[in-house]
Amino acid sequence: MRLLVLILVTLLISLPAMAQRRGGGKVPVETARVAAAPLSERVTAIGTLISDESVTIRPEVAGRIVEIGFEEGKPVKKGDMLIKLDDALPRAELADAQARLDLAERNFKRTEELFSNKVATARSRDEAQSSLAIGTASMELARVKLAKYVLTAPFDGIAGLRLVSRGDYVSIGEDIVNLEAIDPIKADFRIAERFLPAIRTGQPIEVNVDAYAGQSFTGEVYAIDPNIDASGRSIIIRARIDNSEQLLRPGLFARIALIMETKPKALTVPEQAIVPRGENQFVYRVIEGKARQVAVRLGTRRAGQVEIVEGLDEGDVVITAGHQKIGDGADVAPIDPAVDGNSGNTASAKGKGA
User: Taking the complete model, does pTM exceed 0.70, yes or no?
Assistant: First the structure.
């Protein structure tokens, strides 16, 4: 056992020396080139998806259901009949009003003729005219009342699960079925009040939901609540998301990224290249085969990459692995992404025939 431990220690001690001999006395390191690419600044939030339009169908009059004109979970068009109540009574009232109106029209015509021949008085003419107006109003009232016995869809949408059956007696205001318009679909979310100056309508968002892991949906902000939530000091934002495939549904929990600004040529390096020291950040840049410590100022972090706001230029080569073995001015030999140790130029191992 002691012999095995001694062998391992010897190997560990000899590895750096062996590596340096392979690199001609230079420390092997991995490198990457500073790249310029579009980068967006984002604010992340959580939110909830809601319908573009949502309503619960309720009757304005009481009655017994005689017909159901929709299928649960199926699309309906604006104006489609959803529920029809027994309308025998209002139809009879409409017929009565029609008969009274016909009589009032005939009486008015006769009185008008008599008045023109100076046989009827002006008072009788006015009374006939008033009776005609009352009959017309009663007729319109009967028509409106009859129309309320048929419940129609107020907009295009998808019918929910009905809460009644044919033959049920429903009261005024009783829930019948919900109707949802989900294309487009909306998202409500909150962000901290400190972002208020940077928020505007039309800003794009990216939405992710657990139901479709790995798939992103895009939308844009269209409304910002003018009131700041005093309890959470947050701004309530509402956005629309294209849902033409109707994959998204109201009530889903959503992870939302609000894209504040897109920089067309942001400089980025792998996060592994950053060497923090106290409150400062550094990288090792490869210049003519030597590692040079450079102070940098960082910006946005995204997917393993970090933005370099100050300290580097596009095309610079930085060390991403091997920092613990080097110092400022150390001779280095790239071993993977391949930087020419003498010139500092980047070349892949495959390009060297490796």
Answer: no
